[in-house]
Amino acid sequence: MTMKKRKRLFGILLAVVMTVAMMTGCSAGKGGTSGSGVKVGFLAPTLQTEFMIGIDEKLHEECDNRGWDYVSASFDNDSAAAVSAIENMVTGNCNYIVAMVSDTSCDDALKAAQEKGVKIIECGVETAVHDLVLKTDQYSIGTQIGDMAADWLNSQLGGEGNIVVYTTYQNQDMQDRGQGIQDAIKEKAPNVNILEVVDIGKDVVGSGTTTTETMLQKYSNLNGIVCYGDAAAVESVEAVKAAGKDNENFGVFACDGTNQALKGINDGTCMRGTMYFEPIGSVMAEYIQQMVDGKTVDEAVETPIHAVTKANIADYYKADK
């Protein structure tokens, strides 16, 4: 091959390599584009429940639409895994981390990330280390769940009946939510018997099923289950159905506004009420956008939430979902 042909071939190969590099550099996730200089990391306690999966998917979609890079990780309620995930996100050049931490065990890792210029957005549990926190008054959420349950018990069972409460002691916020449930029921339906307050642990798939099977065997006169979250509630509904107790005098109440819970309310099952959060992924993305644009953002903002029952289910659930 002559020198002239070699130079021509080299030029063609160089052009191909540069084209491939440009195409690769412009690809980021589902239809998004990189090059914006923004990379968002989402740290979730679990990515197995509908609620958390929904946040992950919506935040990913919002990031793609803005041309931002995105990565998510679940720490499965293991604080060591959470710290490792945060460190990996920093190493992976995330400049915004949305952290749904369970407690303060990640504060040192989050602080180290801040010191490297990473903006920290917390949601759910608030710790001392954040640039922005989407606040939720967990005790207030608990009282709203309890209010829904009490209203139903008063109207359907004349203010009497027997229920169990499912809570979790994994962190103070969830303890507060569980306490709010109990306090509201005791205040608004004082003649209702809270037979047991059950710590069903963390968001583990299957815990709602096994716990409800046990409760139904233990209490033959049970009229309702009030849960701190939809994951356990949806499983409880199925267990109640299997036991032949899905009737007009049995009610399940919870929080998260997942599609499964909303469908249960819409379809007339014993799922009677849930608390619906405004799409958290979209809310997070909007605040990150404001930070990217250099706008002043309040350090703490409230997450909008609404009680959903049969009376207003049409406003929150569409059958074709």
Give a concise summary.
The chain is α/β, with parallel strands linked by helices and 321 residues long.
**What can be said about the biggest beta sheet?**
6 strands, parallel
CATH class of the largest domain: Alpha Beta
Mean pLDDT: 87
CATH topology of the largest domain: Rossmann fold
Rg (CA only)? 24 Å
The neighbouring-strand order within the major sheet is 2-1-3-4-5-11
The multimeric state of the shown protein is single chain
Amino-to-carboxy terminus distance: 64 Å
Approximate strand percentage = 15-25%
Q: Architecture of the largest domain, CATH level 2?
A: 3-Layer(aba) Sandwich
How many helices does DSSP assign?
A: 10
Structural class: alpha/beta
Helix and strand run: HEHEHEHEEHEHEHEHEHEHEE
Describe the structure.
Belongs to the bacterial solute-binding protein 2 family. Keywords: Signal. It is found in: Cell envelope. The chain has a 6-stranded parallel β-sheet with strand order 2-1-3-4-5-11, sandwiched between helices. Helix content is 45%, strand content 19%. Helix 2 runs parallel beside helix 10 and helix 5 runs parallel beside helix 6. The chain has 321 residues and is of the alpha/beta class. The protein has 10 helices and 12 strands. The protein folds into 2 domains: 128 residues, Rossmann fold (3-Layer(aba) Sandwich); 140 residues, 3-Layer(aba) Sandwich (Rossmann fold).
